[in-house]
Amino acid sequence: MTKPDLSVKIGPLNLKNPVMTASGTCGYGLELKKFCPPEELGAVITKGVSLTPWPGNQTPRMAESASGLINAIGLENMGVEAFVAKALPALKATGATVGANILGHSPEEYGALSKRLSLTDIDFLEVNVSCPNVACGGLAMGATPEGVAEVTAAVRENRGDKPFIIKLTPQTADIVAVALAAEREGATAVSLINTIPAMAVDLNRRRPVLANVTGGLSGPAVKPVALRQVWQCASNLKIPVVGLGGIFSARDALEFILVGATAVEIGTATLTDPAAPVKIIEGLRQWMLKEGLDDLDQLRGSLKI
Ligand SMILES: Cc1cc2nc3c(=O)[nH]c(=O)nc-3n(C[C@H](O)[C@H](O)[C@H](O)COP(=O)(O)O)c2cc1C
Question: What is the pTM of this model?
Answer without folding.
Answer: 0.97
